[in-house]
Automatic annotation (TrEMBL):
The protein's name: Lipopolysaccharide biosynthesis protein
Signal sequence range: none
Sorted UniProt keywords: Cell membrane, Membrane, Transmembrane, Transmembrane helix
Coiled coil: none
Source superkingdom: Bacteria
Keyword Cell membrane: yes
One GO location term (cellular component): plasma membrane
UniProt entry tagged with the keyword Ion transport: no
Lineage of the species this protein comes from: Bacteria, Pseudomonadati, Bacteroidota, Bacteroidia, Bacteroidales
Amino acid sequence: MNDNRKIILNTAILYVKLVFSVLIGLYTSRVILLALGVADYGLYAVVGGVVSLMNFFGTTMLSTSYRFLAIEMGKGEKGNLNKVYNTVFIIHVVLAIFLLLVGETIGCWYVDNFLNVNRAQIPDALFVLHWSLIACGLSVIAVPSNGLLVAREKFLFTAVCEIGRMVLKLFMVILLAHYIGNRLRMYAMIICVINLTVPVCNMIYCRIKEQEIVRFRFNQSWKDYKKILSYCGWIMLGSAACMGQSQGSSIIINLFFSTVMNAAYSVAVQVNGYVQMLVRSLGQATIPQIMKNYGSGNAERSLHLVFVICRYSFFLMIVPVATLIISLDEILVLWLKEPPAYASGFIFFMLINALIYTLECGFDALIQSTGNIRNNQIGLSLILFMLLPVAYVLYLHGASVYSITVVNIILSVCVILFHCHILQKQTNFTYLEYFKRTIYPAIKIFVVIVGLSILLRYVIKIDNIFVSVFLKSILAVSSMSLSIYYIGLDKIERGYIIRAFR
């Protein structure tokens, strides 16, 4: 299978996985809330949030793992995959031990002294913490296997495992509703075991299919560890900036507005989370190809893939984004019955921001492929950290509650321009080529789809909310897809699609 077809197939697989993940995830959340009750659900969310913060290190290391493995694969016979894999594996084992020690000491101390819950619930909270830490530690150890599968582009296997995990979780949660004992403790054990299924499957698969790569050999070269840890440190800086921006926004809003605004913002963040999953899925299918081609010395091919994925990501994202915006108020009523005030406004601006982000989809992968990420991560972090002080000053002077999301959109544009500058210095990237191959086609489609969206939103008036949403969505998806086909794609690309359906 050639590289282009592989990218298309991987994108389709990730799309299907995403649809299943969203549908099953939304229903599972509802069942869990009913089974545990608000108090226990909130307790698990708080304790689980502490562990998620620690697990942030593990997820950051994933991108580091598949970056080094993919680059090594691109070197062909000159590469030493076994050496790289074992170096990454040992780093993750040490990291897992460190996280477990921190969790079992500082984590327990925090829960026992600062967690804002009834004292009678402290034993349950500690029980949840212990089981969550077990899952966290073992998941971190399995990160190199997951990174190897991503580098090998085994997306079908990982998608099947992930969907299986979610179905199993839903099944067990439904059974939990009939459990008579302490449901919170049982839920903690269930989630621990279920969350370990995918990492364990990944490790077993690699042991069977990639024996030569995963065979353990201790790497005694400190330079290799230092190189990977240095790279990971800069990646963590950017990730920490993203996390700080996300968590800090709620705090800033809470300083100037009521908890009603926080509820509205929280709903918007949840919707944005699913949209971001779609954005990441679009880019993930091409990341291994970008890195492998760069590792093999074919930097021009990597740059070509970046331009292609930017344009296609925008096309694929604008359809669901515009469809959501057209019927946003009705969809919120169908979903939440009584959505918080201002939720639709927050969602609107976050969707626009997600759409803008697609215009740099693949930039990070190419920059990371070069290995020169220090300046990029410092600049990126400074731009992202600007959100909170700027929003604070605006709110201090009586600005609208939506100001923080508008500032975020402006900063996203700044990030794109900054990444263009970095790529121009490190590769053969040019602003003119980027405009011709990505921005100009995106502008054409944007103008057409904005016109269609205004027409569908304000012309079609149906009293029945469900019928209105369904009809508008069908018309939106079909008309926008045709617009992209005839206006966004060139003759050669339309030919590929026609041949694919024959």
